[in-house]
Design a protein that fits this description.
With 398 residues, the protein is mainly α. The chain has helices spanning 26-29, 38-45, 60-84, 92-115, 123-137, 142-154, 162-169, 178-189, 192-207, 211-230, 234-259, 271-278, 296-320, 329-334, 343-352, 369-377; strands spanning 18-19, 281-284, 363-367, 385-387, 394-395. It has one domain. The chain contains 16 helices and 5 strands. A 3-stranded mixed sheet has the order 2-3-4. A two-stranded antiparallel ribbon has the order 1-5. The protein binds zinc ion (2 copies). Pfam families: FA_desaturase (PF00487). Residues 87-342 form the Fatty acid desaturase domain. The chain crosses the membrane at residues 64-82, 214-233.
Length: 398
């Protein structure tokens, strides 16, 4: 379906010789929109245009500060909403979503790269930053995160992958149909058992970590309890913090652990082939509407639907499930020491270069949260998956 929104929209100078990938890339269809909208669309989709230059070149610290600022913004918005009360309370989900985005960014991006020692390149700094984040979020301490996650890198999607063991413990099993999988996700996201067990595991991991790390948790909890009691903040904290930090965090975890890799059977594969077959880039959005030959009202209607879907479907997905470089999680598996703070552009260039050194090209999945979940459980049946050639194939446009 993506072929119909093909290379016609690509800038003229690229028309002589264009990577085959551009012909099946919905992002390219968005060139039809004004230039000022392009950085937003790049952030939202997770995919730059093939000739786009980054508006900002990020540093790891810059990424973390931005995530921290997002958390503070979400919390302040929540405080304001509670202050005005009444109808304003309907705005609380927006504050929860913003806070959850910042929290998930700090955990799945900053702490994640700290445990890989690719945050500051100074080991003790990475450990310190990771431990502070995990303490405040009541998330997996650095040692535990590192041990589990390095096993995940060694055997993604095999039965010994800790992420696979976790997902199986929530009721997932290989071979689910799309319908069974959707029902299981919906059921688990609201399951008190799932959330209770997950929260308990977070508490236990924070109290069974190395002594210095347990001390950090105890000091943090004592200070937090004293402050909330002194300033009568328990109700506000419960509303604005625990919903994103417990409920939404754990929903995002479940969905992210599934959709960040494909449930391809790689038990018979080895090495880079086994890794490449289960790694996927997740991109939000869809081609712009085809309006040629339509009347003014039809055109306006199609564009209105497209923009409503951008803000009501794709934006919440991007915020909750795909903070930071989660869209480019496959780049991280293929090239763990790449410039993750600018992953969207690094991945694009690696795709265009043909993924040198890899036997299988990059795999993209486009669309909504449902499309991404369908693709992960049905990787050879999904029409939203694009498989790139593993070499820099260039073909002239017709
Ligand atoms: Zn990793
Ligand atoms: Zn992974």
């Amino acid at each position: 379906m993506f072929l119909e929104h093909s290379t016609d929209t690509v800038a003229g100078r690229l028309k002589e010789s264009i990577p085959v990938t551009a012909a099946i890339n919905p992002r390219e269809s968005m060139r039809a929109l004004p230039r000022f909208a392009q950085p937003f669309l790049t952030w939202l989709t997770g995919m730059p245009l093939i000739d786009e230059k980054p508006l900002v070149v990020w540093t790891p610290v810059g990424r973390s500060l931005a995530a921290f600022a997002i958390v503070i913004s979400g919390l302040l918005l929540g405080c304001l909403i509670l202050r005005f009360s009444n109808w304003w309370l309907f705005g609380l989900p927006v504050s929860w979503l913003i806070t959850a985005n910042g929290i998930r960014d700090l955990y799945t991006v900053t702490e994640h790269y700290c445990i890989h020692d690719t945050y500051s390149e100074v080991h003790w700094v990475d450990v310190l930053v990771g431990e502070v984040i995990s303490t405040v979020l009541l998330a997996a301490p650095v040692d535990l995160f590192r041990a589990d996650h390095l096993k995940h890198h060694a055997v993604p999607r095999l039965d010994s992958d800790p992420d696979v063991l976790f997902l199986k413990s929530t009721g997932f099993h290989r071979g689910m149909t799309r319908q069974e999988f959707r029902a299981y996700i919906a059921r688990t996201c609201v399951s008190p058992v799932y959330h209770g067990r997950y929260l308990w595991s977070r508490i236990v991991s924070n109290l069974t970590a190395p002594a210095h790390r347990v001390a950090m948790t105890i000091v943090y909890v004592v200070i937090l309890c004293c402050a909330l009691t002194l300033f009568h903040g328990w109700t506000v904290w419960t509303v604005i913090w625990t919903v994103p930090a417990v409920f939404l965090f754990q929903v995002a975890s479940l969905v992210n652990y599934h959709s960040e890799h494909l449930w391809d059977d790689v038990s018979g594969a080895t090495g880079r082939e086994a890794i490449a077959r289960v790694c996927v880039g997740r991109f939000c959005g869809e081609p712009v509407p085809a309006t040629d030959g339509r009347g003014t009202f039809a055109r306006l209607g199609l564009w209105a639907i497209w923009w409503v879907r951008i803000f009501a479907v794709h934006l919440p997905h991007r915020l909750l499930i795909l903070p930071g470089d989660q869209s480019q999680h496959d780049l991280h598996h293929r090239r763990p020491r790449s410039d993750w703070a600018n992953a969207a552009f690094v991945r694009r260039d690696d795709v265009l270069a043909g993924a040198p050194g890899w036997p299988i090209g990059y795999i993209d999945v486009w669309g909504s949260l449902v499309d991404h979940l369908d693709a992960c459980v049905d990787p050879y049946g999904s029409k939203k998956i694009v498989r790139h050639a593993p070499t820099a194939y260039r073909a002239p446009l017709r």
